[in-house]
Q: What sequence folds into this?
């Protein structure tokens, strides 16, 4: 089978990521093999190629989102069958520790993100892969492989952050930072689904229009406007109830300052860097809740996919990259500016 493999680290993905032939995997006990029809890019692919902030198993296949058809089941597989249409749930956890058995599989001490920390040669940018039965979710017939791959990890991350952690409910004002991003474009839709007023930030007027189409009530262009002042003005200096952010150190201090008394900031990343400062007065005096979120549960992914099947949440796909030149997707992600997710179809070279 063909897979996108790298064997050394680099800041330039084009120097190390090559589509080449590797042996197709067989499912182990409790695992299923999947013919991957669609896979999407995430920023952890870039971290893996750089080898920063963590070294990944080598040789490496990245890709933490994959959708396709089950082609083989290993021994002890109980529910998933050959021919099932499935999407990956990238949170590999032990399923037996106190975290896993209390519904917090994302906090499992043995947790690994499939397609990032897994390997060698075990990720979604390949024509076939294997996953534990508990790490696949069956797809409704009306959900396409492309939509499933595009939405699974970003959408589950946004669902877990907003619903599972920040516990949004009708009437709240929610600020989604970076509305054009994978998590941002789904975060806007989830907050609307829950009856919130949604503010988001973008980098161009074209992106602003697309965020309004996704349901955003108020959009700030952070390149042409003082986004902090604009959000303050829009909320009549009251600030916002919830902020969903993944931007990191360049925006974090202002975000904390924008929260209402008792407000909640939930972060799922730090694209611009993680060495941020915080004015502790905002924390204790305002009763601020600072929450971290990463990944999500299988049940959260299933909840998300039900709303996708009902048409209430839509996958946002920026572009489809031919698999033979799939490294172009990494380059595009590094340049930034894409709206939603970049995907590739491994069966279509
Ligand atoms: Zn565990």
A:
């Amino acid at each position: 089978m063909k897979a996108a493999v790298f064997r050394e680290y680099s800041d330039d993905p084009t120097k190390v990521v090559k589509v080449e032939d590797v042996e197709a995997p067989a499912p182990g006990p409790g695992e299923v093999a999947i013919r991957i029809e669609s896979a999407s890019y995430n920023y952890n692919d870039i971290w893996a190629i750089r080898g920063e902030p963590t070294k990944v198993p080598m040789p490496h296949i990245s890709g933490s989102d994959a959708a396709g058809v089950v082609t083989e089941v290993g021994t002890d597989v109980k529910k998933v069958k050959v021919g099932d249409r499935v999407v990956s749930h990238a949170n590999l956890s032990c399923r037996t520790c106190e975290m896993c058995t209390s519904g917090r599989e994302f906090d499992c001490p043995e947790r690994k993100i499939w397609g990032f920390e897994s390997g060698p040669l075990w990720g979604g940018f390949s024509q076939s892969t294997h996953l534990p039965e508990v790490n696949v979710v069956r797809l409704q017939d009306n959900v396409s492989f492309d939509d499933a791959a595009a939405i699974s990890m970003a959408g589950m991350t946004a669902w877990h952050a907003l619903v599972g952690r920040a516990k949004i409910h009708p009437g709240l004002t929610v600020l989604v930072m970076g509305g054009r991003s994978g998590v941002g474009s789904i975060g806007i839709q989830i907050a609307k689904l829950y009856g919130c007023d949604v503010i988001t930030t973008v980098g161009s007027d074209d992106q602003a229009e697309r965020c309004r189409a996704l349901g955003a009530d108020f959009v700030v262009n952070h390149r042409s406007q003082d986004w902090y002042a604009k959000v303050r003005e829009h909320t009549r200096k009251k600030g916002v109830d919830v902020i969903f952010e993944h931007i990191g150190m360049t925006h974090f201090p202002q975000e904390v300052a924008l929260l209402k008394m008792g407000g909640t900031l939930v972060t799922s990343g730090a694209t611009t860097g993680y060495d941020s400062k915080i004015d502790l007065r905002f924390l204790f005096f305002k009763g601020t809740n600072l929450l971290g979120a990463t990944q999500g549960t299988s049940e959260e992914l299933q909840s998300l996919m039900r709303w996708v099947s009902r048409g209430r949440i839509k996958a946002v796909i920026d572009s489809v990259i031919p698999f033979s030149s799939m490294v172009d997707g990494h380059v595009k992600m590094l340049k930034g500016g894409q709206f939603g997710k970049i995907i590739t179809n491994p069966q279509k070279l």
